Amino acid sequence: MNQTLQKNNPSANAGRFVPVAALDQASIVEAYRRWAGIYDTAFGGVSSKGRLRAVSLVNRLQGTDVLEVGVGTGLALPHYDRGKRITGIDLSKEMLRKARERTRKDELTHVQALHEMDAEATDFEDGSFDIAVAMFVASVVPNPRRLLAEMRRLVRPGGNILLINHFAAAKGPRWWVERALAPASRALGWHPDFAMDAIFSAEDLARIETEEVPPFGIFTLVRLRV
C-alpha cells in the first residue's frame, strides 16, 4: 500500500474477534509505571515510523489545535510543526514526567499543556480541538468505543480523528501468535488481539481511510473525518 490513505473495506474487518482479556485502569497505570523508565528504548524504535507517519499527517491537515491522546513520554512532541498548538494527555504520571522533561529540555514552545487525564472521560469542552490523534492507545484503554466517542466529542466539525495502532490479523501465523499472547494483556498493558471492530462501528468502518505502516505493516494509520 502506498503512503496515501486508502478507503477501508469494512467486509475485511467484519466479524473479527474482540479482545479476550479486558484491561482495567489500575492494571494500565501499573503496567506503564513499570515501562516508563525503559519505554523509549524498548518501544521507541519499533514504533517510530508509525509515530512519524501520524505526526506528518497531523502537520499536513488544516487546523492548529491538536490533542495527543496517550502522549506517553512525549516521543512525538518534537516532530509537530511549530504552527500547531499541542495538548497532551496521559493516565501515567510517570510517563508524563518524562514528557515534561522532554518539553523543557528541547524547548518545545508549541506544547501548550500536558495533563494527567483519563482519555475516555476528559475535562475538555466539546469541540476544543481541530485534530485528535491517538498513537498506540486504542488497544490499551479499557473501553475503546468510549475512547473514540470522547475523541469525536472533542473534535470540531470538519476536523479529524487519527489513530496509529496494531490491529490483529484476520488469519495466518500472526493470528495465532496474537491469540496466544492475549492472556498476557494485563502484564503487557495492551491487547495483542485487538481488532478494528473493537473500536469502530460498521458505519465508521465504511468511512475510515487506512494506511499500513512499517515495519512489516504491523501498524495501521487510520483517519476518520468528523
Task: Explain what this protein looks like in three dimensions.
This protein is α/β, with parallel strands linked by helices and 226 residues long. The chain has a single domain, classed as Rossmann fold, CATH 3.40.50.150. Helices cover 33% and strands 22% of the residues. The chain is built from seven helices and eight strands. The protein has helices spanning 25-35, 39-60, 93-105, 144-154, 173-181, 185-188, 202-205; strands at 6-7, 65-69, 85-90, 111-116, 129-135, 155-166, 209-213, 219-225. The longest helix is centred in the N-terminal third of the chain and has 22 residues, at 39-60. Mean pLDDT is 80; it is low at 10-22 and 171-191.
Report a brief summary of the structure.
This protein has 226 residues and is of the alpha/beta class. The protein has a single domain (6-225), classed as Vaccinia Virus protein VP39 (Rossmann fold).
What key phrases describe this protein's structure?
226 residues; alpha/beta; eight-stranded mixed beta sheet; Rossmann fold; single chain; 8 strands
Note the beta-strand portion. 15-25%
Largest sheet: 8 strands, mixed
Q: Helicity range of the residues?
A: 25-40%
Shape by Cα distribution: globular
User: What is the name of the CATH class?
Assistant: Alpha Beta
Terminal Cα span: 24 Å
How many domains? The number is 1
Shape-level CATH architecture: 3-Layer(aba) Sandwich
**Count of discrete alpha- or pi-helical segments spanning 4 or more residues:** 7
